[in-house]
Amino acid sequence: MDSLTPQQRHANMAAIHGKNTKPEVVVRKWLWGHGYRYRLNHPRLPGKPDIVMRKYRTCIFVNGCFWHGHEGCRYYTIPKTNTEFWVNKVKRNKERDSKVQHELAAMGWYSITIWECELKPVKREDTLKSLAYTLNKIFLQDRTVRQYEVFEEEQMMAAEDMTDEYRNKTTR
Ligand SMILES: [Zn+2]
């Protein structure tokens, strides 16, 4: 990385940072091929998630290890020149990521982060299978919660009916 000229580095970063970079496409294609449907860059959601899965109330972020500061990852090495600039830049990105995830959570959305290093050919299939597992788990969990809420609502309505009946009897 250090051997790059500033121009080369800029071109590199722009390529990594831009939309439709390869790692995102890998995730999308896999999901689509496995029957998962999604929207791209949902405009109304904070942080412009890379992939939005409404049915699962889930946003997927495919993060570059350098830009988003993947801790302990060998692809996250701060350049030895302009160190402070890069440290601050990555720090700001991480702060923004965390803020976005909190905002999404407050809106009832799950966030899943997939790191670029997890999409290297040797790890890819495992990563995506585990993503599918997580999505299915979220889906089932949400359904259980929803059914429970409906059940509680019905009970409350039943209770109200009974009070009405009782009231009718006593006023009569
Ligand atoms: Zn990484």
In words, what does this structure look like?
With 172 residues, this protein is an alpha+beta fold. The protein has one domain: 3-Layer(aba) Sandwich (Endonuclease, Chain A), CATH 3.40.960. Helices cover 58% and strands 10% of the residues. It contains 4 helices and 4 strands; from the N terminus they run ααβββαβα. It has a 4-stranded mixed sheet, sandwiched between helices. The longest helix is centred in the last third of the chain and has 51 residues, at 121-171. The protein is elongated and about 70 Å long. Bound molecules: zinc ion. Zinc ion (ZN) is lined by residues 65, 70, 73, 75, 115, 117.
Task: Compile the SSE list and pairings.
Layout (H helix, E strand, L loop, with lengths): L5 H12 L4 H12 L5 E2 L10 E3 L4 E6 L19 H24 L3 E6 L5 H51 L1
Parallel strand pairs: 3-4
Antiparallel strand pairs: 1-2, 2-3
The structure holds zinc ion.
Care to give the gist of this entry?
The chain is α+β, with helices and mostly antiparallel strands and 172 residues long. The chain is 58% helix and 10% strand.
- Range of strand content: 5-15%
Write down the overall geometry: elongated
Query: Could you state the CATH homologous superfamily?
Result: VSR Endonuclease
What compounds are bound to the protein?
zinc ion
Topology order in helix (H) and strand (E) letters: HHEEEHEH
Q: Give the class-level CATH name.
A: Alpha Beta
Helix content class? 55-70%
Tally of helical segments: 4
> What Rg is obtained from the alpha carbons, in whole angstroms?
23 Å
User: What's the pLDDT, averaged over the residues?
Assistant: 84
- What would you call the structural class? alpha+beta
Number of strands: 4
Strand order of the largest sheet: 1-2-3-4
User: Which CATH architecture?
Assistant: 3-Layer(aba) Sandwich
CATH topology: Endonuclease, Chain A
The assembly state of the depicted protein chains is: single chain
Major beta-sheet overview = 4 strands, mixed
Count of all domains: 1
